Amino acid sequence: MKAIAIYGKGGIGKSTLSSNIAAALGGMGVRILLVGCDPKADSTINILGGRIKPLLEVMREERRPPKERFCRVGFNGVSCVEIGGPEPGVGCAGRGLIVGIRYLSEVVDLQGFDLVVFDVPADIVCGGLAVVVKEGYADSALIVTSDEFMSIYAANNLCRGFLSIGAKVGGILYNRASESGVACVKRFSEKVGLPILGKVPSSDVIRDADRARKTLIELAPSSPITAALFSLAHSVYMNSFSIVPKSISEEELEDIFVGDT
Predict the structure, then answer these.
(1) Would you call 40 a catalytic residue per the annotation?
(2) Is 14 designated active site?
(3) What is the CATH classification number for the domain harbouring 150?
């Protein structure tokens, strides 16, 4: 069994990529579990066509619920779990994630899957959100970024966080790729020592699929963007690269965008 945790700046399309990677690999016959770790509990919507009751909410109703109460199978045979979060204004999302993942690992046979994908909120400053890689539930992390400054800034902060806890990262997923921005992402990847595993262009078709609560793999299987997603999914699944990344200073980060390397 292989397990990865996908991190990235909020709003960068991390959950969309995670669900499409899961759907693509499911269609290839890979036994896959997608675990949403965001308190919004929206990582698996496009696989299931709607929301699933989060594990932490189910656990508030029943202390040790069976997996049938919180695990569902969706498109292309992808198994789905949402960890969820505490009630609004009460408790810590990171601490709730720790409780949920630990229980999940007790009652679900993770070894029965070929790949487990954890879709994790971006803020690794919270120790609870780093638990997925820190405690070894995932073999390594992947970082989603676009070529916008704030997205790469967030990616660099993630590298700094992974470096501080000694967590390994397998590479970068370049989302909303553009011809004008690819050089910046390449410079960043070289400086932090991480390969770019694949890129997916920005597209209205992806947004249409999100609005329809479907993966693009399901909605538009013959789209060129779908082909890019299949390529990315294959790269993610086959990737064996994994290192503790470097991080760079803010001055170096700014230099990436002015080409002063």
Answers:
(1) yes
(2) yes
(3) 3.40.50.300
